């Protein structure tokens, strides 16, 4: 029962640590993952808010937490990487749809970043498909419900 909770915490770390790192470090290391490049449609690949600092911070947080709870650090690194790759995928799709980085895309903002790492957990750990799906859904729902609160508290710069 504890493992699904730990995986939920890892999802929160993967997606929350980049936000905390941005607050702590300001402009330091905020190089865009896409290097400021645009796609064929003239829109950014991901956008300026997707940075190498955030990517590395999320991966490092998951690696350290994974090792701390007795899992392999490599699992944590891959878990964090997949969560953030899901976030990049969401950003890429949102840009193609003409949505700005602050625009809300219900489901698209939550599902890839939770489902991709949970597929890894399902294949790597003693977690059933149902448990993996439940953790992904719980993360998505909590993200939808808690993000507006974090915005009101001044922790997030956008309400979603």
Walkthrough of the structure:
The chain is built from five helices and no strands. The model has no long low-confidence stretch (mean pLDDT 91). 64% of the residues lie in helices and 0% in strands. It has one domain (2-152). The protein is mainly alpha-helical and 160 residues long. Keywords: Membrane, Transmembrane, Transmembrane helix. This is CDP-2,3-bis-(O-geranylgeranyl)-sn-glycerol synthase. It comes from Marinobacter persicus. InterPro entries: CarS. The chain crosses the membrane at residues 55-84, 131-151.
Task: Explain the layout of strands and helices.
Layout: H1 2-25, H2 52-68, H3 73-96, H4 111-124, H5 129-152
Task: Give structural attributes.
membrane; transmembrane; mainly alpha; CarS; transmembrane helix; 160 residues
Q: Quick recap of the structure?
A:
By secondary structure, the chain is mainly alpha-helical. 64% of the residues lie in helices and 0% in strands.
Task: Give the distance, in angstroms, between the N- and C-terminal Cα atoms.
Answer: 29 Å
- Kindly name the structural category: mainly alpha
Helix content: 55-70%
- Count of discrete structural domains: 1
Low-confidence stretches: none
Order of helices and strands: HHHHH
The average pLDDT value, as a whole number, equals: 91
Using only C-alpha atoms, the radius of gyration works out to 15 Å
What's the story with the biggest beta sheet? none
Q: What would you call the shape?
A: globular
Number of helices: 5
Percentage of residues in DSSP E strands: under 5%
């Amino acid at each position: 029962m504890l493992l699904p909770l730990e995986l939920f915490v890892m999802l929160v770390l993967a997606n929350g640590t980049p936000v905390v790192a941005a607050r702590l470090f300001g402009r330091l290391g905020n190089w865009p993952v896409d290097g400021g490049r645009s796609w064929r449609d003239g829109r950014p690949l991901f956008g300026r808010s997707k940075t190498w600092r955030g990517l590395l911070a999320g991966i490092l947080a998951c690696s350290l937490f994974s090792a701390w709870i007795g899992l392999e650090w490599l699992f944590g690194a891959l878990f964090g990487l997949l969560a953030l790759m899901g976030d990049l995928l969401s950003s890429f799709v949102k840009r193609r749809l003409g949505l700005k980085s602050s625009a809300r895309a219900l489901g698209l903002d939550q599902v890839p970043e939770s489902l991709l790492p949970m597929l890894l957990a399902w294949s790597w750990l003693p977690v059933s498909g149902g448990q993996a799906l439940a953790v992904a859904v719980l993360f998505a729902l909590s993200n939808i419900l808690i993000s507006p609160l974090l915005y009101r508290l001044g922790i997030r710069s956008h309400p979603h």
